[in-house]
Amino acid sequence: MPILKTDFPDLVIFEPVVYEDSRGYFFESYNEKVYSAEGIEIKFVQDNQARSSYGVIRGLHFQLAPHAQTKLIRALSGSILDVAVDIRKGSPTYGKVYTLELSAENKRQLLVPKGFAHGYSVISETAEVMYKCDAFYHKQSEGGVLYNDPKLAIDWQIPADKAIVADKDLLHPGIDSCVSNFIF
């Protein structure tokens, strides 16, 4: 499973080796030994799955330490634009945005480490998204960054009049007012 580094420290893309034949395809979506060989030691404890329709924007979410989560995200069906924002004070990429299309077709996965706000938009008719987490959900530790903060200038690839955003996600502060406890 090739691991592609990004310009963001600890944010990596996993591109699985896919074996195809007349029956269809097969690939390992997760193998602890492969990650460990790359120096990535993660014990995943929770899997989450969501189905959404075109125009849904989920995020930007995070959980504060000590309940912070590393997430391994992939699209089981359809396509999403996955978005990660570095909110680690002192990071060379603090306040910067990374985007990547994840789809059932490309089978890519994005490993979003602790200290990033995460979200995605559904850019196909529907999409099912699955992500592994290395910490359990902890409501009291929820945090977020406003998905349409002008300072971040994220192109969600959804026209503003087609965006479907949860009420709670409209209440998050911008990056400059974001309260987090992440230090790089």
Give structural notes.
With 184 residues, the protein is mainly beta. It has one domain: Jelly Rolls, CATH 2.60.120. It is 3% helix and 40% strand. The chain has one helix and 14 strands; from the N terminus they run ββββαββββββββββ. The chain has one helix at residues 32-37, and strands at 3-5, 12-14, 19-21, 24-26, 46-53, 56-63, 71-77, 79-86, 97-103, 109-112, 116-122, 126-133, 142-144, 164-165. It has a six-stranded antiparallel β-sheet with strand order 1-2-10-7-12-5, with no helix packed on it. Strands 6, 8, 9, 11, 13 and 14 form a six-stranded mixed β-sheet that branches. The protein has a two-stranded antiparallel sheet with strand order 3-4. A hairpin with a 6-residue loop joins strand 1 (3-5) and strand 2. The protein starts with a strand and ends in a 19-residue tail after the last strand. The mean pLDDT is 96.
Output the CATH class name: Mainly Beta
- Count of all domains: 1
| Beta-strand percent range | 35-45%
Helical element count? 1
Ends apart, CA distance between termini: 27 Å
